[in-house]
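PROTOCOL LOG
Step 1. Enter all chains and additional molecules of the complex.
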Amino acid sequence: MIRSVPAAAGRALALLAATSLIVFWATELLPSDAAESKAAGRATGAQLAALRAELGLDRPAWERYLSWAGGLAHGDAGTSLVTGRPVGEMLAERLPATLTLAGCALAVAVPLALVLAWRVGAAPHGRIAALTAVAAAVPQPVFAAALVALFAGTLPWLPPVSLLAPDTPPLAQPELLVLPALALALPSAAFGAGMLGGAVADTLRRSYVRDAAARGLPPARVALRHVAPLLAAPALRILALLTGGLLASTAVIEVMFGYSGLGELLVSAIGTRDLPVVQAVAMLTAATVLSGLATADVLAARHREEPC
Amino acid sequence: MLRTRVVIAGLIVVWALGGGLLAPYDPQESVGSPWQPPGGGFVLGTDVAGRDVLSRLLAGGRELTLVALAGAAIAGAVGVAGGLAAGWRDGRTSRWLTATADLLLAVPFLLLALLLAVALPAPAAVIAGTVCGGAPLGLRVARDLVRQVRHAGYVEAARCRGERPAVIMVREILPALAGFAFADLLLRFVLALQLGAAFGILGFGADPSAPDWGRMVRENLPGVALNRWALVAPALALTLLVLAALPVSARRSRPSRRTPVRWRPVGEQVPAGERRSALLQVKGLTVVDANGRGVVDGLGFDLAPGEVLALTGPSGCGKTSAVRGVLDVLEPGLRRVAGTVAWRGSEVRPGRAARRWRRTEVGLLDQDPAGTLNPLMSVGSLVLEGSGRTAGEARALLESLGLDAGRIWDLRPRPLSGGQAQRVALARALLEDPALLVLDEPTSGLDPQTLDLVVRVLKEPGRTALVITHDEDFASRVADRFLRFAEPPASVKRPAPESTPAGAPVLRVRELSLGHGDRPLIQDGELTLAQGEFVAVVGPSGSGKSTLLRALAGLRPPESGRADFQGRPLAWPPTERDAGTLRAIQFVGQDPSDALNPAHRIGTAIARPGRVFGMPVDVPELLERVGLDPALAGSRPGELSGGQRQRAALARALAARPAVLLADEITSALDTGTAAGLLDLLDGLRADGLALLLVTHDTAVAARADRVLRLSDHRLVRTENDVHAR
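Step 2. Run joint prediction.
Step 3. Record the structure below.
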């Protein structure tokens, strides 16, 4: 297992490099390319070839990978094939909206997941555990639909779509954030609680935890002294995965609510085959998850006393 | 109950697949104005383009369900196959598969699917996304399961029968994985549905006007104020489809065949006149399991001050549950449904009162005391936790138990030896000088020195204690009174033990060396086993006794040396041995919990050697011979107790009519009566010429052997313990 900060960072970097390969080659498999997309079927073969040369698409794939990856390492994500603007600039424009949304969602999801996980772990076959399992399985759009039907249909309190006014910080219109943030947070919390609940149940089954209860120690002391220290590492790992999943699901939720964030940018870029944008958003999300997991690994190593 | 759920789930899936046939309108045609509320021939109103919501709802699940089913099937198959490949053998394949799975797990699967959607058409991207996102999870779980079972007793038994790896995988490992694989399939189905719904929302798909529940949700979101059914109906349909997959994967509990146990006080009764007032008084204590079956039935006893009461009985009879019921610390799944517990004359109610009582009055030493020490705490904080005593008193107590308090005080439990850890736990139980001491199976968990300390503590004047033990000798040494499970021990036919004259040698081991390169376990082992002879091998734990038997059974090759069976050299691995040799040498392992494949019935397991070696097997007769009810042939191992499973495993070995039986600690999981019965049975078989090589740590068992070999310092040494010489 990973025991030191450099080792964990090294592993995260190696995984990130591997991810960049996947990201690049997945987009390489495209049946059509950005030149065709840009010309929208109106160009002749010669014009297409010229366009490809202009966009640099005529170079061999590995060469393009190396220059792309090298650019990423220097913070240069390339130029959008569709708008011709630097990708970094486009991302920077959308990032605050998505960070605000994801932050609000996490602020709801994390405490909710912790509370639910405790209940699930204490009674793995109980009613709350069953409800959590159902909530984790129900597709995210259903939550969005239910919330909209309730708070925008039956009770006309909130707008059903969240169109951000341009050049306004997202927090200036908090009523636009409520429904998308909840639609992100509720299923994520259920998913996280399901996973962490398993770890809680495992910990509660350990003989020294049961023995502590059998010796008559107060439940709060058992929880803090014997259970919580062992849960820090799994909780962090799950938080990293949860954040990653949440960032990825912003694509769905942002499109549903018409909220112009990174996810919406990703989806429209997939539609127009704007590869540099797709790759940059994917790498940004992957880097977030991997750095979170690396942090969790380091902390787990500090807490681990037993052989695993 | 389960069947109803499966039928409902099936109906929902059929509806999702075939509902389009019932659609009253063409789902793609505009037949009204947008977002018309229900009415006017439109049961659920119209959608964004004035199309009939009901028709689109009926038709919109088909592609989604088909894609999800395909994705789940492929992901499930890839996961299980990968898990088998990664778990069956450690090595490069295993490492690469695991690394790939880890990488895929670290990237959010929705992101992966979106990336794939750039290159692939939507249904293919959903399937590929399900495989990338779901198969790694399945692979990891399947790999861990395979790793657990590949050294299980039933897999080793199959290897000892010379069965090929492919056969073992299909017959032994896959059935053991079947439950997991099915649950895995359902979870992948849910994952694929989530992806499919997300893709519908994002509008990836060939035909933007085709009905699809996900797309319906998105299209009708802005019109929620006009016709909310256009939004709610597809959302409900998606939820129903997900729920169809979920409840089937819920927990299934198997009824156990355990019968309620009646406890009767046996032993010295104090005359009524002299009876002191009871310290602890238990009346009508009844504990039931999750299925409502009795585990402890109406137990009652008194405990006077200064009295040591032993609860004895065979393993699995509910001794521990009874005491845990008194203390109100039952295992999950067990419940106390009746009975009262009184302490110094006033009732102790379950819950907070019982917790306070345990904290102030009771000292508890668990069956595995070392396991009760939190590995993250130091010895000092462990002993003092929740106690009002000072560090000085704790140190003095540790010293009095033979520990170097100064040296270990700041250590965590891990560097302590097993015996030291046990003593730390004992110190913790004794520190408050508890009015009631509770010891759970001290003879099975404690090393001899710690056990002596425990005996010393129990003999202290005025000590009140409850001792749970299956060891009657120990109970009679320490207890003033007994509570014993009154039913007679399981009956086993008892042929008169007789010492058989040793016949011709069947097994001859010459200069056998076992170990890992520079870490030898056994060097130049010499051993001869004659027809009808009983040879016991004893020695400290970890000295290689079990390894010796496993090597002879063919499970691990020796470093050097040879072993001859009836004059012909034994080959390794077992697949190289001829059928006659495989049949004639049978091995019964140590651990009854995994000796039998949980997926196969007892009868199937016992009949298996007959199928492999092509000989008739009389299952009921074999079961009876090992003292089991022939009706158990139809049961699965999960319904049997440890002792019953051990006897069934023995019956399986005997089914091959072996000439040599290699038995590893087969009595350690059994209570004295059952163990004696089993040994009597083996004695009877020896009269028919069976040679028995038995590894044991129990001197009473070794005493029955014709010869005893001691494994010490990597050598097999003859001992003076020779039955014929005495």
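Step 4. Note key features.
The CA atoms of residues 32 and 98 of chain A lie 29 Å apart.
The mean pLDDT of chain A is 82.
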